[in-house]
Every structure is written in structure tokens, then in C-alpha cells.
Write a structure and sequence with these properties.
119 residues, alpha+beta, three-stranded antiparallel beta sheet, 3 strands
Length: 119
């Protein structure tokens, strides 16, 4: 009985190429979804900053830090997370007219907004 050795790799190139493409697309898709999630978080933090300043400028009976905390607690993504809040007013937060600037930062994500309280 004679045995023939099979030394052909005709079909394995196609399988390796398909495997590589699937792996590459998986990595790209995972990275892309992570970037989209980061972008969505940045947009939401920017919205919180803008809405807080807008609410303060239209009705200054509440303090700006309270407005920021209320808007942060209304957000499922940012509720309970540690966020650095910086508020600056020029010349003074209680004077009119005044320019109000708020900066929110959480890790890599930063957002800022400003408004003018003309009285």
C-alpha cells in the first residue's frame, strides 16, 4: 500500500484571510464604539454646562453650583460620578451685569459654557 503525502495549502489561505479580516474589523469596531461613547459623554457634559448657565442667567434666584448639581443628578451617565466644577464670574456673581463662566471636567472630558447676566 502506498501513502501519498498531502502538502497542499490551497484552502488555508482563504481561511486565514477571512479570520484576519474578522479580527481586524472586530478591533476597529470596538475602538470606534469606545470613541462614540466618549463623544456622547462629552456632548452630554457640555449640555449640562450650557443648561446650568442658561438657567442661572435667566433666573439668578438659585445658586449656580446647585443648578449644576441638579442637572448632573438628572443625568444617568453623570449621576454619582466625581466631576470638577469651576465657576468664575466677572466682576462678581451677584453683580449685574456679570459674565458667568463654568468649566466641568471629568477625567479626559472637559466642557465649558459662559453667559452674561444682564439683569
Amino acid at each position: 500500500m502506498r501513502f501519498r503525502t498531502i502538502c497542499r495549502d490551497v484552502g488555508s489561505v482563504l481561511i486565514e484571510a477571512v479570520g484576519f479580516v474578522v479580527l481586524a474589523f472586530g478591533i476597529i469596531l470596538t475602538a470606534g464604539l469606545g470613541l462614540f461613547e466618549l463623544q456622547a459623554a462629552a456632548i452630554e457634559l457640555q449640555s449640562i454646562a450650557r443648561n446650568s448657565v442658561r438657567s442661572f442667567v435667566l433666573d439668578d434666584s438659585q445658586s449656580l453650583p446647585q443648578l449644576v448639581q441638579r442637572n448632573l443628578s438628572a443625568s444617568e451617565r453623570w449621576r454619582g460620578r466625581e466631576i470638577d466644577i469651576r465657576i468664575s464670574c466677572s466682576p462678581d456673581c451677584l453683580a449685574k451685569p456679570t459674565q458667568v463662566r463654568i468649566e466641568l471636567s471629568a477625567g479626559q472630558i472637559k466642557a465649558e459654557a459662559f453667559g452674561v447676566n444682564g439683569g
